[in-house]
Amino acid sequence: MKDGILVVNKPEGVTSAGVVGRLKRLLKVKKIGHTGTLDPFATGVLLIAVGKATRISRFFLHGTKGYRAEVTLGVETDTYDCTGTVTATCDPEPLAGITEHQVKETLAAFSGVQAQVAPAYSALKHEGQPLYKLARQGQMIQKPPRQIEIHQIGMTRFRRSAEGYPVFDMDVQCSGGTYIRSLAFDIGQKLGCGAHLSALVRTRSSQFTMDQAVDFEALKRMAPSDISERMIAMSQCLDFMPSIVADDAIAKKIRFGQPLRCDGASPIRKGEIRIIDKDNTLLAIVQPDKSGQTYKYCCVFSA
What's residue 133's pLDDT? Predict the structure, then answer.
């Protein structure tokens, strides 16, 4: 089985762990996992790392995420989304006065670096326990605010539901670790009417987009060999890193875990670097050590 990243279009009602479990049985692999949870009610891009690619998952966790979100104003829930229990509603009169222009101006205020509080119903842990498990037991734990960044945010559609609630769609580009549920809640607070996230599609995770995604239902009908063909090779997944093409001598050093030194022909490169062979196969990921004269290994894939 090929090692690499499979971009899956997760359907509504399936957990991220459920997608991983089904693919593990289909592909008959021991090592498989996702690079960032997508809530069960949400759909869209879910990155699945297969085989040795599970070791590069961490390089995508903090990448830029893209979302298309639907927010319903006037109703708050305990989970900040459509799956939760309603905790507050706004009177019809203030809701009637909310305009499209007002919402656009409010969204613009959320652009940039900011502190965000994660929902009490989330996968973040408190003393080893996921917050959502504690919340279900009646323990609503609020974690300290975390720094996030909204790179782009904009409304694409404004309307009213059959019940008369203002509803709008927004496109968001943000840093990893951003909770769109919390963003919806905070927008509702700023507008003074409350809000919850009523639908969510992840359109991008790091450099991977919906254009590359395979529908989960289609994957369930595919042969393992066909699924393998849809995987993106590890080196290609990390093409945002600078690369060094290894000759036979460097490849041998990598196999035996020997130090890799700067050749003196050019300054030693900073940050993480992928070392590939002439066929673009990923051999290792390295970065400079403290001396600045040699590279230390982050991951080694050649054996």
Answer: 72
Fold of the 4-63+207-237 domain: Pseudouridine synthase (3.30.2350)
Just list the catalytic residues.
39
Token duo for residue 276: 């590939």
Domain 66-204 matching CATH 3.40.50.1370: the answer reads no
Domains 4-63+207-237 and 66-204 share a fold: yes
Bridge partner residues of 46 (DSSP): 8
Q: Over 50: is that where the pLDDT of 265 sits?
A: no
pLDDT score at 1: 66
For residue 56, what are the contacts with CB-CB under 8 A and spacing of at least 6?
A: 49, 234, 237, 238, 285, 299
Closest to 110 measured CA to CA, from 183, 203, 202: 183
Structure tokens that stand for 157 in this block: 């559609």
Q: In what order do the strands lie in the sheet with 282-288?
A: 243-245, 273-276, 282-288, 294-300, 260-261
Instruction: Give the model confidence (pLDDT) of 80-128 as tens digits.
Output: 999 999 999 999 888 999 999 999 999 999 999 999 998 877 776 766 7
pLDDT at res. 257? 87
Half-sphere exposure of 242 (CA within 13 A, CB side): 10
Q: State the CATH architecture for 243-300.
A: Roll (2.30)
Q: Identify the CA nearest to 99 among candidates 60, 155, 16, 183.
A: 155
Domains of the chain by residue range: 4-63+207-237, 66-204, 243-300
